[in-house]
Amino acid sequence: MEICPKCGLPEQACVCEQIVKSSQKIRVTTDRKRYGKIVTVVTGFGSGIDVKKIAKDLKNRLACGGTYKGDTIELQGNHKKKIKEILVGLGFDEESIEN
Fold first, then answer.
1. Residue 81 CA: distances (Å) to CA of 7, 17, 86
2. pLDDT digit string, tens, across residues 30-56
């Protein structure tokens, strides 16, 4: 059984990621890229969050393409209305998500 180096609990009972998720201030905006294409941009993820995993989950649930760079996720299309409920389902606080 492995122990988490941050909280000292076993890996199965680790609460580090949940604590980090509750303290985030996430912004969801839209932007126009080349040729007038709309892109939804999600920013504000901290260093303790697996952005790659969240980007993959968002792309699967929204059936769209996208990418992640650092602490930013870009999704093809306008998904501002749907992203909030998906992020709440992933464990983020509803009050910390800003549209």
1. 35, 25, 10
2. 999 989 999 999 999 877 788 999 999
**CA-derived radius of gyration, the chain:** 15
> Which residue is listed with tokens 């998904």?
79
- For the chain, give every domain's residue range: 26-93
- Length of the chain counted residue by residue: 99
In whole angstroms, give the CA distance from residue 99 to residue 83: 9
Q: What is the pTM of this model?
A: 0.77
Which pLDDT tens digit goes with each residue over 68-79?
Answer: 998 999 999 999
C-alpha distances in angstroms, 27 versus 7, 37, 43, 49?
28, 20, 5, 15
- Where does 26-93 sit in CATH, by number? 3.30.780.10
Nearest to 64 by CA among 49, 78, 52, 51: 78
Structure token pair of residue 39: 């892109």
Decide: 96 and 24 in contact? Cβ < 8 Å.
Answer: yes
